[in-house]
Known about the structure:
- It comes from Moellerella wisconsensis.
- Keywords: Lyase.
- It is an enzyme of class 4 (lyase).
- There is one protein chain.
- This protein is 48% helix and 6% strand.
- It contains 20 helices and five strands.
- It has helices spanning 24-29, 45-50, 55-74, 87-100, 114-126, 157-171, 210-222, 228-231, 244-248, 254-264, 275-295, 318-326, 332-344, 349-362, 367-377, 383-394, 409-416, 421-426, 441-448, 461-483; strands spanning 9-14, 36-43, 79-83, 105-109, 131-135.
- A five-stranded parallel β-sheet has the order 3-2-1-4-5.
- Flavin-adenine dinucleotide is lined by residues 232, 240-244, 247-248, 282-283, 285-286, 289, 349, 352-353, 356, 374, 378, 380-382, 385-386, 388-390, 393.
Amino acid sequence: MAEPTAKKRHLVWFRHDLRVTDNKALTAACTDPDAEVLAIFIATPAQWQAHHLAERQISFIHQNLSALRYKLATLGIPLVCHTSTDFKASTDWLVQFCQQQNISTLFFNRQYELNEQLRDQWLQQHCHQLVIEAFDDFLLLPPGAVRNQKGEMYQVYTPFRRAFLPQLQQHGYSSYPAPTPRGEPLNLESDKPLFAHQNIDLGPNYPAGEKAALQKLRHFCQQNVKQYAQQRDIPSVEGTSRLSAYLAIGVLSPRQCINRLLLENPNTFDSSDGDAFSWLNELIWREFYHHLIVAFPDLCRNKPFIAWTKNLAWSSDSTHLLAWQQGKTGYPIVDAAMRQMNTTGWMHNRLRMISASFLVKDLLINWREGEEYFMRQLVDGNFAANNGGWQWSASTGTDASPWFRIFNPTTQGKKFDPQGKFIRQWIPELQRVPDKYIHTPHEWADSQKVILDYPQPIVDHSEARKITLEAFERAKNQQFHDEN
Ligand SMILES: Cc1cc2nc3c(=O)[nH]c(=O)nc-3n(C[C@H](O)[C@H](O)[C@H](O)COP(=O)(O)OP(=O)(O)OC[C@H]3O[C@@H](n4cnc5c(N)ncnc54)[C@H](O)[C@@H]3O)c2cc1C
């Protein structure tokens, strides 16, 4: 009698897509009802360290991976977690694992950062015995899908968005349901501890698992999105979705976001100044920065987007850097922002812009210092968005405004936190300062002869502004000399 034919074995490699619903790689692997499906996750601590990944984000990955493993088990798919030091070791282990387990096809969703792309290219080139199926799943549209008339990537956001929307309508954005349960799971050692990490309690804002993430999404699209345009810049109110940490590691997909948004707000596309559209606009910023790192891989090599800004002579004042990191600059809105991030791992978008601008334009400290510090703190750390946000704020990136427009931290504070509600939340030392002086507390303290346990401003904004303008001017002129 002939031997029964061995079943095909498919392997799904989970990376930044820790969910079972709307996951293209998982859906594709489960299409064949007869194939056995296995899943892996490879933790790479040395690589995470090199990419400055925050311990908080690593802990968030761990929590969500536990939830994913449970969910996969209910579908009959065992998840094996392996730890390799770095990407090279991870691919070596993966090749061996595929051989041992007789894997016929490897499925994964693409990552767009340069190191990650090189890792996947290596795999494609060295694994001829394996069929590799890679998918674009992390974004609404794959990088390269939106180009200008010259066939190039846009370098400014607004025209990118204009071209993006019709492309999106044409391409579609349907979500995929979770695969249906398969038979008995394979007997693999998938109940071992996932990977070594520091367990960090992220508080009530970050319940783990896709069910919790989808609930947060639904709640936001039913409620807070209705005032998003007016409230998104006010740090003292819960005006934004707080979904970034879930999007960063793929517990949620952007397709799920847009579908829920349209379900609750069917007229989203009708007006580009409506609340729901404003939120969609932020999701498109996310797309823009990811498309940008693929079109300009030098961004992943620590280079500025605007070449002449490499000539800037940065300050190396480490006391200024430390004061900024610790939220002790003497500028209340900047300090409250930094303390919010240091304590919770999240910072409001308006405050990210203000505190980034302060580091670069008031302290003249290299934006890369800020980029790294943010990455080490943020639970939502994401290379493309962080690099894009930093370079935008530093005027070394894609901001359509010229470099000589500089935020004044005091006026920004007065505009977006007029009564200092947010400031008082994070700087108890300023609790009794009257609203009128909350942004310039020492003026009040001096007039009242009160001693405040809060630092004097570490720089004078108008002087710092002058110094920065001169530094940018010199860097630009140097480019002119270099070219001639
Ligand atoms: C200096 C700086 C650094 C930043 N670093 C990061 C980062 O590491 N990771 C990160 O996800 N975002 C980053 N951002 C963008 C933005 O601040 C956060 O995405 C946002 O504050 C997250 O809160 P939310 O989920 O409530 O956003 P919402 O306002 O609800 O927006 C919805 C989603 O859209 C995306 N998004 C919103 N604004 C932006 C933006 N400007 N650029 C790209 N995507 C955006 C996020 O995925 C966000 O979850 C940075 C911005 C700046 C100025």
